[in-house]
Amino acid sequence: MTERIIDFLNTRRPDGPCLVVDLDVVRENFATFRRALPDSAIYYAVKANPAPEILRLLASMGSNFDAASVSEVELALEAGATPDRISFGNTIKKERDIARAFLLGVTMFAVDCVEEVEKVARAAPGSRVFCRVLTDCTGAEWPLSRKFGCVPAMACDVLLHADRLGLVAHGVSFHVGSQQTQLGAWDAALADARCVFDTLADEGIHLKMVNLGGGFPTRYLKDVPAAEAYGQAIFEALSRHFGNRLPETIIEPGRGMVGSAGVIKAEVVLVSRKADNDNLRWVYLDIGKFGGLAETMDESIRYPIRTSRDDGPFEPCVLAGPTCDSADVLYEKTPYPLPVSLTIGDEVLIEGTGAYTSTYSSVAFNGFEPLRAYVI
Ligand SMILES: *Cc1c(COP(=O)(O)O)cnc(C)c1O
User: Fold this and answer.
1) Residues 264 and 156 in one domain
2) Measured from the CB, is residue 250 less than 6 Å from ligand 1?
3) Is the CB of 259 under 6 A from ligand 1?
4) How many Å lie between the centroid of ligand 1 and the Cα of residue 139?
5) CATH code for the domain of 335
6) pLDDT tens digit sequence for 33-73
């Protein structure tokens, strides 16, 4: 929570739920990543929050961009990035989208199988490709599962195939899982990356780059290690596995860049119980899973919630959204402590919501308009 956000809400008094993002915090987060990982190029993961103001700020500070679609490539270009500063990091792309990105000047693409390599070779000849390897995501609060990447042995074949098809076999990527709170998470993935580098070197192909992905956390209810600690742990793991021949590295922070910069203002619509003798209160907000808080799925991400009644006693409540879908419950398995005096009409502030909220909001489910966002 920043003074600027509080001032904005107090003066503008926007009606309905909204996200407010403070660019000063994004600026600080970028500078912190720079300091913590001074040898890594920063590729902001556009999907975390593609607001033009954020992209323009990051472009002006020298950030590069990780895009997952042609639209995200275009957003990065409109924000002032040149195409050589954009990586098409999605391993799942239509061939015509690869061609469109190539036409826009993008020449770096993620792959995780030979089928995708063949698309890139046809649609973006001569480009650099990096191959994503699977990681186990232990320690991540929002794991990215087995959807992306292949085993390291297959990554070698994928990159050899790329080389045969005239592409530049550029490197290896992985993602240790989003909201990764274990500093050691990068170690095993870097060991795998080193194996791929060695196997390719035996074939005369010298990979250059390791893409360390995202995973850098935002502080929600629990403390998380500082960016400096991540930088240190990653540097040690790189040295352990690559000795003094360190590859070029890039990081792709999304959540860690913008999560802490945003606050959602919402309102209590209803407080009720399911029976007269039931002492568990249900608190319904004017925002829920379909209004931007999709990451409460499986109660994965628990956001800090502030109210003007936080000096009184608290009790655990079920917290739910306003829509008519029974899946629109935020916290029930582990009820959320809220002030006993919290009542209908009260405003609540949901912190740490700068990432993965505004674009997850549905367009009009139940007639609720998409989450409004203000970037200040
Ligand atoms: C989503 C994503 C990121 C950003 O991850 P965070 O955990 O939000 O930092 C980075 N790289 C790729 C390829 C992604 O898909």
Assistant:
1) no
2) no
3) no
4) 15
5) 2.40.37.10
6) 999 999 999 999 999 999 999 999 999 999 999 999 999 99
